[in-house]
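Researcher: I'm preparing a figure for a lab meeting and need a structural model of a single chain. I don't have an experimental structure, so a prediction will have to do for now. The sequence is pasted below. Please return the structure as tokens so I can convert it later.
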Amino acid sequence: MKKLIVFATLAMLSFGAQADEGMWLPLFIKRLNYEDMRQKGLRLTAEEIYSVNQSSLKDAIVSLNSGSCTAEMISKDGLMLTNHHCGYASIQSHSTVENDYLTHGFWAMKRSDEKMNAKLTASFLVRMEDVTQQVLAQLGAAATEEERKEKLTAITEALEKKAVEGTGYTASVKDFFDGNEFYLFVYEVFKDVRLVGAPPSSIGKFGGDTDNWMWPRHTGDFSLFRVYTGKDGKPAEYSPDNIPMKPKHHLPVYLGGVGKNDFTMVFGFPGTTDRYLTSQGVKMAIEQSNPARVKVREEKLALMKEDMDASDKVRIQYSSKYYQISNYWKYFIGQTQGLKRLKVYDQKKAEEAAFADWVNKDPKRKAKYGSVMADLDKGYVEKEKYNLASIYMDEAAVAPEIIMFAYEMASSLSKMGDKSENGEKVDEEVKELKEKIKEHFKDYNAPTDQKILAAMMQMYAQNINPSMHPALFKEVQTTFGGDYNRFAADVFAKSALVSQEKTESLLSRMDLRELQKDAAFRVMASYLQNYFQNVIPGVKQADAILDAANRLYVAGIREMHQDKKYYPNANSTLRLTYGSVQDYRPKDAVQYDFITTLEGIMEKEDSTSEEFTVPAKLKALYQKRDYGRYGANGAMPVAFITNNDITGGNSGSPVIDGSGRLVGVAFDGNWEAMSGDIAYDPQYKRCINVDIRYVLFIIDKYANARHLIDEMTIVEAKNSPATEPKPKTKDRAPVPAQKAAPVKPKAKPVNQ
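Model: Understood. Here is the structure written out token by token.
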């Protein structure tokens, strides 16, 4: 009996919705969550949150690049708000030593100044639909997991095609609960997205790596874009004749601020969680996967930073790449610590033991689920043999840009060669490839990449079983005496893929056989041959066992607790989380407030550190307390925290109050809850958000871009309706916070 009581508590923590845990599909909000949300402060109807037939909140939520980040529409003229770090690559792509927008910021003072971003897309969800029965009815029984996957692909592709016929939309069928349910998502994708504004990195990245994943936080992590359409209002490729998008809904912006216990929703596209991961997977993450990723990324970051510090040109070229690597380098460190602190492995073992007891008490359950735990053990034993090689392929082998560039060039030349043989013209493909080559070399520094190639090959050789080494490693030993620096120097001396001029010359000859003799191509080909011959077969075999076992385990857990509401793992589909503004105690004798102010920026200022440099104009505004209508009680709010359940992909998501008004922009999680993708921690889990008042303050008072404020729907603190008319644009007196005034943080962040 004692064991069952313990398990019941753990099951509530890990699987059932407890407190503010859960990333919910908005399709089911009315049935699963609406009453709970209403009791906690929601003042909207379920239809106002998600509707297919009328304008709703979901129509203001944007998926950037099919899930890399989230954004929200904040004006009737297509103005879009997201994080600075989500727009970082776009800001970087337009930056040069002469026009360093990363350092100085960028603001389009008129629409003709807005800058096109070729790689940025904005996707709006049109509708979602439960197609589980349609899929399962056609899927039937499959002899193997491979056969099941093949049948599933054919079924989902047919559903996707049928869903968008004659519409111009795109569609995707995703599986949920480890393959037990299936949902169809239909999107409208816009490709003309232009950079409108971004603060300098000293505001947008204030605190840098030191403050990343930390609270208290003082980062103005936001940037602005505008979505454009053709004159017919439909998605269109870039054209100077395109017009600003007219979204079905845009979020009104509320100046009243937040107080403790205020209701909050985060609406966005969370990337990936693994809340149903079993004990074996937790153990692998702690002991093998995470340490390996941290080790490789640490080396890459050190090599990049060395060259970035020595050259402004390289700093700009590699700034976005460096951030992408460093962000999850620190994440994996924190996740490992969090999993250990929460004793997640022990919790999972207790859950699995109780599941086994439940299964064994009924012959029918035993027939269905009896082999699940043994299969999970077997699958992870097999996976562990190949996991490290797979990680090193992902983190080290393809880390040198020249390796992936060789792959992309070979793929492009192969496709063009096939077309040429069939008599098709390839002029357009050649033109596009030349643009890709130009774009690649704009942000490429061969000496840096050469050092990375040498270091990554050496790390692979030292840490991976020799039976899974590429054949080329033998050549390094015999011809170069095992010196990977000498080998890398030889590759870069001989390869045509080290400069734009040499690459374009190779392209002009359209000779795939010549490329296949290239030194960089040989490295790439050797890695791939080894991967497909010696690694992938083992990974596939292990995954086939684990996929079937996990599918049954999750089905069994849900059957075991039929009275609980379950939410699926995140998978880059639209989700709503709800919670409230909350402070927390990270450790003994330390209390963190729920809000930070500009005062904290001044306390952290360090002119000798690029992470904590404060712009002179921001300092002047602080000294004069010139906060316009955005301050509260003589202070300037900067960031606040809630207990909303978020993960990667939620970056840029709107934080919305109970009336559907925008009060902040989510941009990070906190260090104490880094285990959150695997195990939710109700005591420590916090969502870090930039206060919308700080966003407006920077746009207006710092950047003098009042015209951007003018096109938003601003709701003053004294008014509550979400449909409040747009106010006049003259300055107003500071508005007090809705329930509590911002206060100075009581503790500084714990730097790891």
